[in-house]
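Researcher: Checking consistency across runs. Here is 25S rRNA (uridine-N(3))-methyltransferase BMT5-like domain-containing protein again:
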Amino acid sequence: MEEKRISHYSSFQKILLVGEGDFSFSLCLARAFGTATNMVATSLDSRGSLMVNYARALENLNALEVLGCTVVNEVDAHKMAEHPLLKHQKFDRIIYNFPHAGFLGREDNVFQIELHKNLVRGFLQNAKRILTIFGEIHITHKTKHPYSLWDIKMLASGENLKFVGEEEFDKDLYPGYDNKRGDGSRCDHSFIVGECSTFMFSRSFLY
């Protein structure tokens, strides 16, 4: 079987996607590979909520499932390592694009920032448990103030994860990907990506 690639990702990798909105990122990868049998795509929303919140969710999910993707709803990033469908699997790439704890205050509010940091910390604690030995965790995140205050690299270091790289995120590399706000009455609206990077971490062999 021929390997197919898109940006950092390969059809030969077992890929877990966390916190998907309308599943357009997952579908972008699947279409690039020509298959999604190597992918598990998850969201916090129930399937019913997805239908209500995102205009194209059903279309995207149907396309993913035709391509062989395993779609799992109601997956909490803080508990995913114990999920019955995930806890016995290991992944080469675990991807979380634009993690966000919800709009409970201004983005520069200290309390809001701590909520975001706790979300990312809990995700990392779980992701490292279901990562292959040479696998990587990828978090795509805005890098300008106040988002820089989340200090993604420090959070990963605190979980004994090794920083292996940071690359500028170019949305144009992912045709069809429509990033979503994911919370509130405007959850199906996109947002300006601006300056952001994909941060990459691996297991530390001290862990």
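Researcher: Does this match what you'd expect to see?
Model: One thing to look at in this run: Helices lie at 24-33, 47-53, 57-66, 110-127, 152-158.
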